[in-house]
Amino acid sequence: MPADFTRETLAIADGRWPLAGIDEVGRGPLAGPVVAAAVILDPKRVPAGLDDSKKLPAPLREELFAEIMERALAVSVASATAVEIDAVNIRQATLLAMRRAVAALPLAPLHVLVDGNDPPVLACSCEAIIQGDGAVASIAAASIVAKVTRDRMMARLCRRYPAYGFSGHVGYATPQHRKAIAEHGPCPEHRYSFAPVKGVWFR
Fold first, then answer.
1. pLDDT of residue 1 exceeding 90
2. Is 118 annotated as a binding residue?
3. Cβ atoms < 10 Å from Cβ of 13
4. Tens digit of each residue's pLDDT (9 = 90 or more) over 95-138
5. Residue 115 counted as an annotated binding residue
């Protein structure tokens, strides 16, 4: 079943509004940033068919992305770079990107729903929901925005570093990507704290 707006409706009834959903994309890749999105949906204009971005075909993700951007009350996207990931580790970089996304919202939330079990520390209350990106509409919307944004970022990086094929695997550890690293060495967008780069190449 697609994500629904039930959790948000209960929070609104409890006086916790505005409410934002946040999610991240890009914890696992060997290259590129980790990207977080924060979305405050309009309760009267929730797009139909919101779901975990990983479950959606790319054309539908793009359609929903446009719909979210047009209908939502507020949307923000933030990231942590590969250099930051190497400096503080992927968990801390992910939490940093989430905090940046919430801080960048033009409408400050009173409550935040986040996918997973590791919520960031925020100025407002924050609730972690395991598999929330497939169950909670606001988190699903954030998942879609983060995924589409990061994919576009990786496509731009592919034009800058064509040897690695970033637009195809978006930085994940495919055989093609590993082969390119072995042949060309890493580029500045690779995570030097991740194998197979770690301990072999240095910035």
1. no
2. no
3. 9
4. 999 999 999 999 999 999 999 999 999 999 999 999 999 999 99
5. yes
Quick one: which of 171, 200, 180, 195 has its CA closest to 31? 171
The answer to whether residues 190 and 161 touch, using CB atoms and an 8 Å cutoff, is: no
Helix (H) or strand (E) holding 113, with range, is: strand 111-115
Q: Are 71 and 43 in contact (CB under 8 A)?
A: no
Tokens at 19, concatenated: 């409410």
Q: What share of the chain is helix, strand, coil (3-state, %, to 5)?
A: 45, 15, 40
Where does the chain have alpha helices with state H? 6-13, 58-71, 82-88, 90-103, 137-160, 166-169, 175-184
* Residue 136 DSSP one-character state: B
Question: Could you tell me if residue 165 is left (phi over 0), alpha (psi between -120 and 50 degrees) or otherwise beta?
Answer: left
Q: Left, alpha or beta for 104 (phi > 0: left; psi -120 to 50: alpha)?
A: alpha
Those residues whose C-beta lies under 8 Å from the C-beta of residue 132, and which sit 6 or more positions away, are 21, 23, 113, 114, 115, 116, 139, 140
Are 43 and 108 in contact by the 8 Å Cβ rule? The answer is no
Q: Does 4 appear as a known binding residue?
A: no
Both tokens of 105, joined, read 């919202």
The pTM is what?
0.96
